[in-house]
Amino acid sequence: MAITELTLYQQAILLLAGLIALTSFLMLGQSRLVRLVLVFALQGLLLAAATALAASVLDYPHLYVSAALSLLLKGIVIPVLLQRLIHRMGLHRVMDTIDHPARVMMAGTALVVFSYYVSLPVVQHSTLVTLNAIAVSLAVVLLGMLLMITRRQAVAHVVGFMSIENGLFFAAVVSTYGMPMVVELGVAFDVLVAAVVFGVFFFQIRSSIDSLNVDQLSKLTEADR
Amino acid sequence: MVWLLAIVQTLLFIGAAPLLAGWTKRIKCRLQNRKAPSLFQPYRDLFKLYCKQPIVPQPASWIFRAAPYIVFASTVLAASTVPLVAVDLPTARIADVIVLVGFFALGRTFQVLAGMDIGTAFGGMGSSREMTISSLAEPAMLMAVFTLAMSAHTTNLSQAMNYVLDTGLVLRPSFVFALGGLMLVAIAETGRIPVDNPATHLELTMIHEAMILEYSGRWLALIEWASQIKLMLYGVLIANIFVPWGIAQAPSLPMLGYGIAAIALKLAVLALLLALSEALFAKMRIFRVQEYLGFAYLLSVLGMLSHIILEAAR
Hints:
Number of strands of chain A: 0
Order of helices and strands of chain B: HHHHHHHHHHH
Distance between the termini of chain B: 45 Å
Subcellular location (chain A): Cell membrane
Shape of chain B: globular
Radius of gyration of chain A: 18 Å
Membrane topology (chain A): Multi-pass membrane protein
Strand content of chain B: under 5%
Transmembrane segments (chain A): 12-29, 36-57, 63-82, 103-123, 129-149, 156-179, 185-203
Largest interface: A-B, 30 and 26 residues
Distance between the termini of chain A: 65 Å
Oligomer: heterodimer
Number of helices of chain A: 7
Number of strands of chain B: 0
Radius of gyration of chain B: 19 Å
Number of domains of chain B: 1
Strand content of chain A: under 5%
InterPro entries (chain A): HyfE-like (IPR038730)
Main location (chain A): membrane
Number of helices of chain B: 11
Largest sheet of chain B: none
């Protein structure tokens, strides 16, 4: 089905899928940690909106719960947690610059094409209208991995990890009407716990290497200083 | 009759461009808590410059003298191909986006040549900067336009607008990306603030100004006017391609009036956005412009990809 034959709500889901992919790219290019977390929160909000729309279009009321969960956790709680961590560690002025921004962006574009190519056979054998967005969700997962590879700050790694989870969640929404509620709740709280645990890790890393730049982890130091 | 309408539309384009510049300046002044000049100040400035005697630098060749006319003429030609208040005018047959980019390139080439012609350091510097930026902006613009063309199956502006009007409200992810890309390119190409600052004469920030530093009198007026028309041209492109509603599809008087009102409203809103972004953002270093335009290109490419991924029939 071409996009002109879909209803306005279905088009809106696809539009939100596009915007979610865009936020992934914005995260890839952001060099300030505060803004990185802000874009991550935006992605969470878009994800929640897309889920709520899917719930109303597909008439699956339990998706509303997932939408509310992702709005609360990924849109508000985790970004606030991360933001407070960044401020407490004095990282809000640190620039995490990428060495070759153009190359990273081109790699990201290549990943989008790759995920389209991979998901093409799946999409072709289904009648689900939202399934077009599965390539986008796969791309969000891969872009999250790329974000983790290209950054040096541990906080950026955590944001990359969380956005991978966003991609998986979106894939579940567009392809199978969301995961079973038990799984969804489990994953949501896992992510929340992970955010807290990462916070503890940050303090550990900083106390042992005096910064959150993980490149410093490869340097040898004396055992106890 | 329709030809007359096409000519009137072009004249309207040329006549309204300084007004748009004045409006943008007015909002910007208000946002910066300054007292704004009259809306018609750009007209007065142009008139004042026109009355003054132009001075030709001694080493200037014919290129220096011819460039203002070529720049102005190519911009006017470009303006005549873009549907402002009505589609399906006779000029619509050449209203091809690729032709439009070609007209821009012609004008720019001569401006750059004229910048280098007099042999001052500033002229050469401005010319090289302008060429660097335009060589990065052009692919991004073409890519954004091709994204549009993939949906409308044509690169003809008039037909594309008709297509968008006929299909009604369709939320296309690709259009959102193309719109973003085209807006970034428009800011770079018209020399507005994050890329260039048209209001200063500081050597570190000049791009466009450095090239036309030696111009005076009516030649300067022509170049200034051309750049105002160019700003309006990009505004009309953005407004009429992505939100074409209100444009006259048949040449009847009430529809034309409606078309004029619609485009005036859309341009006023766009100018508001432009002034807001200029007040909020600082000008960036020239070495970061390639990053900025790289992002514009990325947006356009993503638009094309999302057309293939999200909108394609299966």
